[in-house]
Structures are given as structure tokens and as C-alpha cells.
């Protein structure tokens, strides 16, 4: 796996097992270092660490000189100038934004001077300057977004950071640069709940199909709770990649998601698939999304069918045309049952209890 690991007197089988674990993400990077008693200053130089998860690991003082860190991700990763990345390949990784920022600042004395000047002035001056220079008509947008991102990383005031985040979101001309910025912000603002929620919202809206972003969001299912977990699960459910990783996501949802957040995930997945799916995957009385496993009464399905016919105008044009082609409530009832069958492919089970099985109904 790495040059450093092979310098240890480890059996080939152990090295093979180590490679398999780290590739399948069943062992975190921090666990790897601890279990094998690796030397942070020696054993990761020129290492192959592509796609590795650094989450919840302190890598300050690690030497990754010449390492291949492409696609390396993680949240709550502690790293700084003592993390040596000279000659490392970091494209698409959690390190990409800050390293590119430093290179841009060092390459342009005027940009670096502007950053140093603004950081020493009142924060309101920074907001005014960024708002003006990140306008679409500005001829200095490229330089301005570098200054704005540097100011954001340097800021301690929460109002200033929130304001800069708003303008920066419109300043990147290359989507990949904005994605790297969000990943970096998420990592370095891990303890700031408000900022983390804002970043998750932006990730959901702009990068739901990004594998790098999706991996971060997926890993957060087990690390969050309450409203934070709900927001993560909604973002995961709205991503088209949720179907690709269905089994892994469902395992995480079953094991770690709170009941109300499981329902939020079901609602997000159903909404991504289509408006009619979102409509029938909710309780017809409370309109709360179903759980991942739900038993409903046939009476409830009949109510949904009736509501469908009355409110089909809320569906997409294609769905509405289909709904209008139905000859009655029975056809809609059958369509709802077919949707429940389809939702099994997403990991959800809706069981309909027939009326004849309910002896208390007369």
C-alpha cells in the first residue's frame, strides 16, 4: 500500500488485510495509525492514500511529502502548517482549496497586499469590498474571490463569515473551485453548527451529484443527531447517488437515524423520484412521511387515491396527464400500490393491511 508500511516487518497477509480495510473504509485513518503504531513523520511519505477518509483525525505534524492524496476526504480533520504536503497530489481532496489559495496569494503580490490591508481594517470594509468586486460585471472577479476566500478563512466574527459566505457563493466561476471551498469550510467549521448547516444546504443545492460531497454527507449520518442529522439525511436523500449506494445508506439510516429523521429521509428520496411518489409516501391524515418500514390501512390508501384525484394539479405536467387518463379512484388505488412496490428498490417497505383483516370495521 505504501512505501512506509513496507518498511515495517509485517507479514504479507497483514499488509493485504490492511489495504483491504482502508480501501473499503472499514478502518479509519486514525485507527490505522494507532493499531499499526505508524510514524507520522516517516510512514506516509510518498504513500498511496487516494480516497482515504481522514474524518475525526488530528494530522498536525504528519509528513505527506510526495503522497497521492487525490480524493482524500473527511470532516473534523485537524491540520495546519505543520501538516507537510510538499509535492503531494491533492486534487479533489479536502486539502485542495487551501493549497490553491496559498499558491494564488503567493503568486500575486497585489492580491496578497489587498488581503493584508482588508484584514487589518473594520470588518464592514471587507464586506463592502467583496460585495463590490464580486459583481458579475467586475473585471477583477478572479482576484477578488481569492481575497474573499482568504478573508473568510481568517475571520473569527460570525456575522462577517456569514456575509462573506453569501457573496463567495456567487464568485466562483469554476464549480469545482466552489465545491473545494465548501468542503474546506465544512471541515474547518465543524464545531460551528450554524456554519455547518449553511454549508450542507449549499452542498445539497449545488453539488448533490458530487461523489466527494456525497461521501462527506454520508459519513455525517452516524456523527450527527437532531436537526443536524435531519439536514444531512435530506441532503443525502435528494442526491441521485443515494440509489447507487442504497445498501450502505440504508444501513446507516437503520442504525443511526432518529425516527423522525428516518421519515425525513424517506420524504427526501420520494421527492427526488417524483411528485406523485412524495404524495403517496406520506400519511394521508397528518402528511408526515412514512418510516422506512410502515404498515398502513387500506382505508388510508383509499383516502390517498381520493386526494390524488382532487389534487393532481400539484403534480408535474407528465404526472397530471397520466392522472387525468385514469377512469376512477380504483385505478389510482392500483397505481399507489405499484408505487409502494417500486419504493422497495429504495429500501422502503409499505405494507397495506386489507380491510377484510380488520374485524373491528363493520
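^ C-alpha cells above, recovered residues below v
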Amino acid at each position: 500500500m505504501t512505501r512506509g508500511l513496507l518498511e515495517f516487518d509485517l507479514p504479507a497477509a497483514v499488509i493485504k488485510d490492511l489495504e483491504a480495510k482502508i480501501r473499503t473504509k472499514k478502518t479509519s485513518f486514525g485507527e490505522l495509525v494507532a493499531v499499526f503504531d505508524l510514524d507520522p513523520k516517516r510512514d506516509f511519505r510518498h504513500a498511496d492514500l487516494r480516497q482515504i477518509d481522514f474524518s475525526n483525525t488530528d494530522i498536525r505534524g504528519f509528513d505527506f511529502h510526495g503522497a497521492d492524496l487525490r480524493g482524500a476526504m473527511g470532516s473534523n480533520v485537524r491540520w495546519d502548517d505543520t501538516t507537510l504536503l510538499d509535492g503531494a497530489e491533492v486534487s479533489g481532496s479536502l486539502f485542495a482549496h487551501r493549497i490553491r489559495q496559498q499558491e494564488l496569494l503567493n503568486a500575486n503580490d497585489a492580491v496578497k497586499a489587498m488581503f493584508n490591508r482588508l484584514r487589518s481594517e473594520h470588518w464592514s470594509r471587507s464586506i463592502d469590498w467583496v460585495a463590490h468586486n464580486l459583481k458579475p460585471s467586475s473585471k477583477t472577479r478572479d482576484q477578488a474571490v481569492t481575497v474573499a476566500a482568504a478573508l473568510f478563512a481568517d475571520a473569527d466574527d460570525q456575522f462577517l463569515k456569514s456575509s462573506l459566505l453569501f457573496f463567495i457563493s456567487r464568485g466562483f466561476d469554476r464549480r469545482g473551485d466552489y465545491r473545494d471551498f465548501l468542503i474546506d469550510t465544512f471541515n474547518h467549521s465543524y464545531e460551528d453548527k450554524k456554519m455547518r448547516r449553511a454549508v450542507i444546504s449549499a452542498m445539497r443545492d449545488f453539488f448533490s451529484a458530487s461523489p466527494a460531497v456525497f461521501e462527506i454527507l454520508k459519513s455525517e449520518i452516524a456523527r450527527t443527531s437532531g436537526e443536524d442529522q435531519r439536514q444531512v439525511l435530506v441532503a443525502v436523500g435528494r442526491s441521485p447517488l443515494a440509489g447507487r449506494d442504497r445498501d450502505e445508506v440504508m444501513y446507516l439510516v437503520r442504525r443511526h437515524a432518529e425516527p423522525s429523521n428516518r421519515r425525513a429521509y424517506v420524504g427526501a428520496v420520494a421527492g427526488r423520484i417524483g411528485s406523485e411518489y412524495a404524495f403517496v409516501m406520506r400519511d394521508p391524515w397528518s402528511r408526515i412521511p412514512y418510516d422506512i418500514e410502515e404498515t398502513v390501512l387500506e382505508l388510508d390508501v383509499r383516502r390517498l387515491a381520493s386526494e390524488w384525484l382532487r389534487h393532481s394539479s400539484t403534480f408535474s405536467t407528465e404526472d397530471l396527464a397520466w392522472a387525468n387518463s385514469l377512469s376512477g379512484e380504483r385505478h389510482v388505488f392500483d397505481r399507489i400500490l405499484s408505487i409502494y412496490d417500486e419504493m422497495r428498490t429504495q429500501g422502503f417497505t409499505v405494507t397495506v393491511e386489507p380491510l377484510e383483516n380488520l374485524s373491528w370495521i363493520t
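The radius of gyration is 25 Å.
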